[in-house]
Every structure is written in structure tokens, then in C-alpha cells.
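User: Here's a chain of 224 residues. Predict its fold as C-alpha cells.
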Amino acid sequence: MVRFHNVSMRYPTGYEALKGVSFRLNPGSFYFLTGPSGAGKTSVLKLIYRAELASEGAVLVQGRNVEQLTSAQLPTLRRGIGVIFQDYKLLYDRSVFDNVALAMEVAGHDPERIPGQVSRTLESVGLKERMYHNPIALSGGEQQRVAIARATVNRPPLVIADEPTGNLDREMGRRIMALFHNLYQQGTTILLVTHDLDLALELGHPQISMVDGCLTQVPDSAQP
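Assistant: Prediction complete.
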């Protein structure tokens, strides 16, 4: 599903965010990506959906080298990846419902299917009663749950998430982790960045750990 082969990434300032990173995610696997702030975790996610490009090495998603994709091919790549951003990236001129429905519309789903699927997804993150509110009227934790609903409503084969429980209380954090676990049980591949090691340990999925742009722990199942 995802393979990093000796990937390094340098920003124009010269800062090296990643240094020789290699790992793989098999289809239907669930990994936590852990490490302190500045370890390079978000950079890994950006390379997967090609918001950034590697300076060295190769990033493959579903067998395709993402660096070699044309601009016309990028939307197809990204439609197959549910991305949950740390800063939400919601549209504040649309309702909660419309933010989530947009993901289905862009993917070309039958318009008659959209209302039911959006409602069920918002219910799963505890926001069904807020679906017609504007996201700007929601708390940070609620906005984060809208972002989670938007990323998962299409049941993409791959979900990558940057601290999806960072603004949630413990109870809601467990509920959201249970949602990710359910997606995993249905065959979705998941890579989830978290600083909450206790919550990660509760689910028991393996961890890929990073420090200063380098991998410090790669489970045998994720070895390249």
C-alpha cells in the first residue's frame, strides 16, 4: 500500500526533515507513527499525498511512485487517501453536512447515496445533531471530528491522520480510536500520528517511531 525507500527530505532553508527513512505499510495494516515534536512525522504524511516531494529516495503508494505522477493524475491519488489534517482545513462558508458531503461529490458518488452516508458518518463521530451548523460555530474538538468524518466518509483504502485526537477529551478520543479500529477491521490501511502513547497502547497496534527525522523503531511487519 505504502513504501518509503531511503527517503530524505530537505526544505529550501536547508533543514533536513527526514533522513534515509525506509518502511512499508501492507494493505489492511494499522500503524501508529510516534515521536516528539519535530521528529518528522507530519513530513512523512505530506509525502504520501504529495503535498511535498522527497529530496532523495522514492515514495510509492499503491505501487506508484508519487513523484512521477502528473498534475492530472494527482486527484486520483488523493481520492484514494483520507487525510485528516492537524489544522482541520474545513470550509467555513458551508455547513458541517456540506463539508462532509463534498468529499463524496468530488469522488463521483451517486447523489441519492450521499445524504444517508453523510448522516451515518457524522453520527459515528457524535455530530449528527450539529450537521447543519457552520463549522466556525463548533469547538476545536468538534471541528476535528468534522475533519475525521470528511476523511472517512468515502471509506478510502488508505487513511492518514495527523494527531486526530489531539483536541479531544479522553472519552471522545477513545471513541474516535474505536472508529479507526473499525475502519481497519473493514480492510482500510491506517497510519495515525499521535503523541498519546497510552491511547495507542490501548488498541495495541504496532508503532513506527521517529526522532530528529530518523526512524528509531520499525516493527518487523513494516520493514522494507
